[in-house]
Amino acid sequence: MNILIYGFVFFGVAFLLHVAIWRIKKPANSIKILVLLFILVLIAGSILSSLYEFFSYVYIWFLFISLFTAYLVSYPAIEVDSPSLVIIRCISESGKAGLNIEKLGDLLQNDLLVEPRLKDLVDAGLVDLSFSAYRINKKGVMFILPFIFYRNILNLGKGG
User: Domain ends where: 24, 58, 79?
Assistant: First the structure.
């Protein structure tokens, strides 16, 4: 039971620090800072709770890493509008009448969905912008390789 409590306490402290820091000033490379923040909280929490034996730490770390991974995967959907969430929100707001296909097409413009994501990729250093052209760099290739590998294992091909 203590493992569960420590895991949630560590995650809760990291989450509260995340919210506090972002309310003061959102960092430029938010994902990098988020990873660093959660790792530091995990290490500090582990040191402060040194009364536990080694295997308890392993369980706490697994729980914390699982919670953090789930949070990290969902964070981009919170940070920026995703196409799926925009579509669902627009359909929901249209009420019983439904959403006209032409109106949906007007809502899903490049400025709303694509441009912020391209800016995020450049800011994260995964893509370079030069002479009005986006080019993937070495860091970007290293980032996408696990996803390509995993999609190939599942025989999913290209697309999403």
Answer: 79
